[in-house]
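Researcher: Quick test of sequence recovery. Tokens follow.
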């Protein structure tokens, strides 16, 4: 069977409105003047993973529900600009939207519009199956309705990854994703004991690797039953925004994983890409390229600075 797609990305397409605020949490006031502007741009988790994978030279295809609305056109335009194939299934409720408040130190507070979808929404099984059978790997966003596609992906014989984001280890919504994926990413934000949650994912599911990202404190890597700490790397320029850092980490990790690198090296790829993403304003859709990634990883391993 021909596998012409390296990674099929499911879900996570949408538009964010970016607002740079003076601080977080934002104190109550009647109004604030936002001198930097308030901007809507295409790019939610699936878009940014697809962008990161494509920038690293992986043949990437994105599948999701999109509305016939201005926000949907922004998403389509981003994929055209970046030459990332997109299969958009009509979504009568409209394209997913969010508002991201970003503080001067790059921290983010996201407000998600949960009205843009319905519990009975589905990605067409025939479409999922056809794309999966042409793919080596599938990265599944936890957005509705991607959980329903997991059995079809497994039947098609592709490996699966997912990002649980700020899962608390308890919410049952995330479990179908956590236990169906071969590679699982999540944040430590809501976890009191990251190792316990990571090991439960492995014990109850099929994950070969679990990565818990801890922002500026680095990440935890569970592979071959061994938990190791992945140090954060100093960004190559000032931190301006943490939007998309986790997506960049996941994309670079998968680049290494799909090229059969050891998990520890995959994690270094992720750390470099995540640090790079923190230097890119959220209003800009940009991702680290393969040559720069490899150069920065080599420099980090040698204890020098890539230029």
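Model:
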């Amino acid at each position: 069977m021909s596998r012409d797609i390296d990674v099929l990305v499911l879900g996570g397409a949408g538009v964010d409105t970016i607002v740079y605020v003076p601080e977080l949490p934002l104190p109550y006031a009647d109004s604030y003047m936002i001198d930097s502007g308030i901007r809507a741009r295409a790019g939610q988790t699936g878009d940014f993973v697809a962008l990161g994978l494509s920038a690293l030279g992986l043949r990437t295809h994105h599948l999701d529900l999109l509305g016939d609305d201005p926000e949907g056109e922004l998403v389509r335009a981003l994929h055209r600009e970046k030459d990332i194939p997109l299969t958009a299934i009509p979504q009568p409720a409209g394209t997913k939207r969010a508002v991201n408040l970003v503080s001067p130190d790059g921290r983010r507070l996201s407000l998600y519009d949960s009205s843009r979808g319905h519990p009975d929404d589905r990605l067409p099984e025939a479409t999922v199956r056809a794309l999966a059978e042409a793919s080596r790997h599938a990265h599944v966003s936890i957005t509705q309705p991607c959980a329903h596609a997991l059995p079809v992906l497994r039947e098609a014989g592709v490996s699966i990854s997912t990002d649980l984001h700020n899962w608390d280890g308890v919410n049952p919504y995330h479990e179908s994703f956590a236990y169906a994926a071969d590679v699982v990413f999540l944040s430590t934000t809501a976890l009191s004991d990251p190792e316990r949650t990571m090991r439960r994912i492995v014990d109850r599911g099929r994950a070969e690797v679990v990565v818990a990202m801890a922002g500026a404190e680095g990440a935890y890597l569970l592979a071959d039953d061994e938990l190791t700490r992945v140090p954060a790397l100093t960004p190559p320029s000032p931190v301006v925004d943490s939007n998309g850092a986790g997506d960049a980490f996941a994309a670079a990790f998968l680049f290494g994983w799909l090229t059969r690198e050891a998990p520890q090296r995959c994690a270094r790829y992720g750390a470099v890409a995540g640090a790079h993403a923190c230097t890119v304003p959220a209003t800009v859709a940009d991702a680290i390229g393969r040559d720069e990634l490899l150069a920065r990883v080599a420099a980090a391993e040698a204890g020098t600075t890539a230029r």
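Residues 129 and 155 are 8 Å apart (CA to CA).
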